Amino acid sequence: MDDIKQQREIASRMLRTLGYTVAAVSSGEEAVDYLESNSADLLVLDMVMDR
């Protein structure tokens, strides 16, 4: 989760290269929505976001 698109893309690309399946979102609200119907083994998030 990162509000900066380029950062999400870089992190997603790196994790996919390591063999992870990635779901990238841009906000906490999107993350909660995603996790309501999906599971995750690992969360990578930006702790300093505008909202």
Which characteristics define this entry?
51 residues, mainly alpha, 2 helices
Commentary on this structure:
It is a single chain. With 51 residues, the chain is mainly α. 45% of the residues lie in helices and 0% in strands. It is built from two helices and no strands. It has helices spanning 5-17, 28-37. The protein is flat.
Unreliable parts: none
Number of helices: 2
Mean pLDDT: 92
> What would you call the structural class?
mainly alpha
Summarize, please.
By secondary structure, the protein is mostly helical.
Task: Break the fold down into its secondary structure elements and pairings.
Blueprint: H1 5-17, H2 28-37
